[in-house]
């Protein structure tokens, strides 16, 4: 039997350089993507970072614009020096905009990530005194947490606790977002279930479980 090689105690200079370059590339890509958001433009915790790159001084900077970042500007070090660790308190004032009375399309589009979330997830509140809300934005179609080739049967609820109705300046409905648990939201996203489809989907679900119960009883 072949003996596995001993574990690395340290990275080789070549591997360390490759890892640093990849980390910086990914960090820049993610930051450029999310620098188009209202959260990046307005959140106080990004102030020093924005100032370092001249974003605060740009009179025309607005949500939807990405910050120009260059890999050769010691970006990772700047990120570490200017952006602190965060807690939910930093995000709550922005998340709460979804729960204003008839939130405007322009006030929540590109809020925490480009575009709109698929749903707004809520915690159970068991670990604290209040329920926390987290907008869940679309993910890459190839981003599966289930390994390919594996099949399983799982049951989850499609239940929602509410819906956020987003309107335009004239008060016309533009978009509806379900407010639900993470599991329910992910299941609804994978099934392509929209709020307008709930009655039909729920009737199909009832028929499915009625058939199962009938087989169990007999």
UniProtKB/TrEMBL annotation:
Pfam families: GH3 (PF03321)
Top-rank taxon: Eukaryota
Name of the protein described by the UniProt record: Uncharacterized protein
């Amino acid at each position: 039997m072949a003996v596995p090689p001993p574990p690395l105690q340290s990275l080789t200079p070549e591997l360390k350089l490759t890892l640093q370059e990849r980390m910086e590339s990914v960090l820049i890509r993610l930051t450029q993507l999310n620098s188009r958001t209202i959260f990046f433009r307005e959140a106080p915790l990004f102030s020093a970072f924005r100032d370092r790159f001249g974003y605060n001084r740009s009179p025309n900077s607005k949500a939807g614009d990405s910050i120009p970042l260059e890999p050769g500007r010691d970006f990772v070090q700047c990120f570490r020096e200017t952006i602190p660790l965060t807690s939910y308190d930093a995000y709550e004032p922005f998340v709460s905009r979804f729960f204003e009375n008839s939130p405007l399309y322009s006030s929540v589009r590109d809020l925490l990530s480009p575009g709109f979330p698929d749903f707004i997830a809520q915690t159970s509140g068991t670990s604290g005194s209040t329920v926390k809300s987290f907008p869940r934005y679309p993910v890459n179609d190839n981003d599966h947490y289930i390994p390919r080739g594996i099949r399983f049967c799982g049951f989850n609820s499609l239940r929602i606790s509410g819906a956020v109705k987003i309107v335009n300046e004239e008060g016309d409905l533009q978009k509806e977002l379900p407010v639900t648990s993470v599991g329910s939201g992910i299941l609804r996203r994978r099934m392509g279930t929209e709020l307008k489809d709930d009655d039909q989907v729920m009737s199909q679900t009832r028929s499915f479980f009625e058939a199962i119960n009938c087989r169990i009883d007999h």
